[in-house]
Design a protein that fits this description.
Blueprint: E1 2-3, H1 4-11, E2 14-16, E3 22-23, E4 25-26, E5 36-39, E6 56-59, E7 70-72, H2 76-87, E8 102-103, E9 108-109, E10 114-115, E11 120-121, E12 126-127, E13 132-133, E14 138-139, E15 144-145, E16 150-151, E17 156-157, E18 162-163, E19 168-169, E20 174-177, E21 182-185, E22 188-191, E23 197-200, E24 205-206, E25 211-213, E26 219-222, E27 227-228, E28 233-234, E29 239-240, E30 245-246, E31 251-252, E32 257-258, E33 263-264, E34 269-270, E35 275-276, E36 281-282, E37 287-288, E38 297-299, E39 304-305, H3 306-339
Parallel strand pairs: 4-5, 5-6, 6-7, 8-11, 9-12, 10-13, 11-14, 12-15, 13-16, 14-17, 15-18, 16-19, 17-20, 18-23, 19-24, 20-25, 23-26, 24-27, 25-28, 26-29, 27-30, 28-31, 29-32, 30-33, 31-34, 32-35, 33-36, 34-37, 36-38
Antiparallel strand pairs: 1-3, 2-7, 21-22, 38-39
Length: 340
Amino acid sequence: MTTLNQLADLVGGKAIGQSDLPISGVSELNDGKPGTISFLGNQKYRKFLNSTKASAVIVSSAELLEGRNGIEVQNPQLAFSKILKIFNPELLKQKGIHPTAVIDPTAHIDEDVCIGPYAVIEANSKIGKGTIVGASSVISLNSVIGKECRIHARVTLYHDSLIGDRVVIFSGSVIGSDGFGFVTDKDTHHKIPQVGKVIIGSDVEIGANCVIDRATIGTTRIGNMTKLDNLVHIAHNVKIGIGCLFAAGVGIAGTVTIKDFCIFAGQSGVVPHVTIGSKAIIAAQSGVTKSLEGGELYSGMPARKIREQHRKNAVLQSLSALKKRVDKLENLVLKNEHNT
């Protein structure tokens, strides 16, 4: 049985209260279970702190516990994520190559690789040590997957896709499909051959049903440690830096450059051929229509600095109030005219 003090040591925190308290699992703060540990990250949930039945709570300050058992640590959410791994170890890894997998003789499969049922590994592909390829996934010719990757079921890597180490790709995602390239002449749309490739760095996570297009020529590139939620589309020739975060439904048009550690909230989008500076944050459902400086929060359509957006919203609200006043005055004038 794991004790509160052992968990505190694991996360670099300080046990508060009964240090030898046994902890058997984790639970939500608003639905806490005896014997488990929870955490308070967002202060919106502080109202549940006194009523939770969890035996211990991870907090940023011991004062919040008010005599309860818990762990004081600088970042409760990060600490909780480490504790989750203790009580929820990864599922047992499948072993070996399933007999129904189809593997070209020229493919190079490193040691300790697992390949699931009906997966297809095409010619001259390479799969690094410790990687798992799930059922019915397709790794097309000349593609390279690094070490310790997890390619879930029904993932498709088109030809010449290059994947770094420790990359996770969830089901339904497609890497290296053609970019949306057409040239129109006399009302006919002529396809532009898409002959580039996709390069994905190490420690990248790609959610379910994402699409990353290959470059027209050159490279579509995803930097190390970047994370994509489900249903994200990255178009041809996009360059994404290190450690960026993309929430669900984001769409990035072609030939966009996104510098390091940018954040894109849900359903935001970017037009082609612009650059977004490092550590920019794009709010939900915002539309980027021009290049943006880094280190700023942007909102709206078109996206602008949040302070400018607030001023615009304030003006629109004042216009609404002004219209009501004008309508009232018009009614008074009409009434006076009728009386005279």
